[in-house]
Prior knowledge:
By secondary structure, this protein is of the alpha+beta class. It has helices spanning 12-20, 33-36, 46-56, 61-86, 91-107, 116-133, 142-174, 182-188, 190-193, 197-230, 234-242, 244-257, 290-294, 297-300, 334-338, 355-365; strands spanning 5-9, 24-26, 88-90, 263-268, 272-273, 279-280, 284-289, 368-370, 377-378, 387-389, 391-394. It has a four-stranded mixed β-sheet.
Amino acid sequence: MSNTETVVISSYTGVREAFRHKGLRQALYDEGAAVMADCLLTLHGDAHRSRRRLENRLFRREVFRAWEHELLGPTIGTALQPFVLVGRGDLLSIAYRVSMNLTAFVAGVDCRQGTPGETETLLALVRTFSEGATAVHSTRPRDELAAEVEAALEHFEHQFLAPSIDRRLALIGQGEDLPSDVLTTLLVNREQLDLPPDVICREIAFYLQAGSHSTANAFTHAVDELFHWSADHPEDLDRARSDRRFLQRCVHETLRLHPASPVSWRRAVDDVVLADGTALGPHHLVILDLVAANTDPDLFGPNASSFDPHREIAEGISPWGHSFGGGIHACIGAELDGGTEPDDTTPPFEHLYGTVAIMLDAFLAAGGRPDPSKAPRQDPSSSRAHFSSYPVVFTREDR
């Protein structure tokens, strides 16, 4: 907007305050409304509180633990197997197949055929949802992107969402045991939340794209950072293969350096004065620079911009920085993706390592490493630092 003034907050404490301030609303996805309108991430106030309270019942630590112990291993094994057999593949393809299957289960999207072709179709749709949600960072013409998103939503609703809804409504009507997923939660409470069909469609599309996209990119960056680090510290690659808690430290360090979005945007819902005296109003766009906050040398040391899995971090500072957000919009699936902070007093069977660390562990166990003959490529369609291709090989001597 022409009347908009921009305020940039880049300090760790400033970003933390802004995340927690109830007078600042989410604004990054305003341009991605085709996918994000009225989704949990964009709601504010009472509407957000009501839906978050219901969905929080599903995203509990004991549920995450069950998914990690029972669901994740077979999902990763199935996704990895064809690539291991041929000895090579693309890390993005592997990552999306793992995260897509897990995220579809969590969101409540049934893949009735269970075929590779069906998975490819859903992946293609979700990639379009991701691009639509992050339209503000897209380098493509907005009209072209909007048309693709609309077509993808229609395809998704017809092939995947409508049958998934029908099955759950039948179970609800019969009083049967219900699936533990987001879609079922929304359907059971749709009258209480006043959820029209288009909002339910966007909410499920949001979960699919947010879960699969962020997980796949975090995993790819984790592989990239670990192998670059191990060129000078080969002993740490050996340790990563045998010490899952150290592996999780590598993931947390990667998440700190590579937040799913480099910035978060907020707008004031009324006049707001921050702790440092900055006065904000609805005409202000507040840009939270997560990369700068996550690499604050006062908190993360003089080499804060570099990967170092041995980094010592002060108590009260998250090892992943602000990459999972904070306040009312803190990522609802943070512990599913990143696990809980390492604690030597927690028994291994109770500790949550997180999806990304479990994926990385399986990749290393299968002898995976970057392809020395083919360099990875950055995504040219986005200003975000994402890979569009990351060739890898699987070698028997590394297994």
